[in-house]
Amino acid sequence: MTSLGIAQILVYFVIVVALTKPLGGFLYRVFEGKRTFLHPIFRPLERLIYWVGGVREDEEQSWVRYTASMISLSIFSFMFVYVLQRLQGHLPLNPMHFSTSHAPQNATPLTPDLAFNTAVSFMTNTNWQSYSPDTTVSYLVQMAALAVQNFVSAAVGIAVAIALIRGFARHSAKTIGNFWVDVTRCTVYVLLPICILATVFFVSQGAIQNFKGPANATTLEGASQVIEQGPLASQLSMKMLGTNGGGFFNANSAHPYENPTPLSNLIQMLLLLCLGAALTYTFGKMVGDTRQGWALFAAMSVMFAVGVFVCYGAEQRGNPHLSKLGVEHVHTGSQPGGNMEGKEVRFGNAATALFATVTTNASCGAVNSMHDSFTPIGGMVPLFNMETDEVIFGGVGAGLYSMLLYAILAVFIGGLMVGRTPEYVGKKIEKKEVKMALIAILATSLCILGFTALSSVAKFANNGYWNPPGPATANLNNAAAHGFSEILYTYSSGAGNNGSAFAGINANTPWYNLTIGIDMLVGRFLFIIPALAIAGSLAAKKLVPATSGTLPTNGTLFVILLIGVVLIVGALTYFPALSLGPIVEHFQMLSGKLF
Asked: How many domains in the chain?
């Protein structure tokens, strides 16, 4: 690692810390219904939405009604995106004529299974794409379906996190808020204003925003090149802020139109973590003890720091066998050194490793490099980040409610150690809460490991299976350990609602589109529904005064316990699978026997 690379990472994290308190305080005021500096501008819009939707702002819901509202919006979102995709050939703003007889030869057909996978993906805030967006979907689908879902799915995640916080903050209550009010306030006062400013900034940096069709250009060598265009910047800002990740181009944030400068790269990474980090402070404010929020922030920060420096160190060291071939791979003043395969030379190893760590911490599929080209240990970091259920800041809202479920497990284990009923922020944690937390954690791991195992051996997966040590199949560019890692990464990304990929796998088959779709649904709703059930249960409970036997949950001891629970659960669950993939591949690289 270089001093400049380390400095880049530290500067980024310092900015995240600086944003956490003011943004978290703003979120607290928004969701508590307090007046903010944006109310003179956006309050009329908020009232209009309530009037059109028939929503009573002062009416709250039980956790069952809250959950039913969330599910109904999600079903509508899925159907809307699916239908719009299937009809795109008959709709306007389709200058490339996708899904018509005049479609270009390189266009990807929007088959029913692909449309299903995409609709589920954007409804669940995953934004996994089994296709190249610039050769598959029209501008109308990009804007009216995919970009809109970037807002909706992000708002749903934040609303669920706020509902769970209310469960801890309230006592002897039957309600946890109003889902429609929470989603509206999140969209109007948080997501929309930030995205407007971010879109203007990205356009100023060189991101495109137009409705033109592809342009034909002649290169300096005299070859012909097709340059895709479209309404990119407006989707770019929300895909980062909402930790969605669906790219306008297949190269995503490695594309110069999506990520033109090092400054745009920094702002994209800040957008990825700012809301997830801020919600920890919001939690502390709403439960009446900001130290509780900072404890969660500290646990997330420690795991983030370990991940980013392990990834950066592995990528900067590169492949030791290159030196035996006479290739200079050490950092010098004239070249970056390390493993630069699949990376943008504009960003280098430090900014690339940081982006990869942040995007998989934040449950976002945006990438500024190809993770498939990382070293085995460098690639294992983003893979393991997703397998922790995205609790390291995580997706907007999803990171906090996932971490709170782990906090429930942590105090339960702590209670077992001292032989008393566990408590967390003044609430007794009993059998129901622990069961709900375990359902969420076990369901995602079952999907990841189960579908990975099936796709690795089952021939009915339509050639999407792994057959070591034989040749790569039609759906897998690599055999042996790396091929297995590609499959494991795919289902980890789906269940973690992340959306990034080891790009060596062709997932656009009926088997993968269907199973990844199920994977994403389980990862989203079998976390949200238990979290809301816990919120309802906790809100109805009375506050329990702290005693000398109460485990403090706002200090260093609890931070260590929480980190330990996250890592131990992840290690025990996924270590055998990781041993078959990146770990064995690492030792093969050291021995020079990669195959």
From this structure: 1
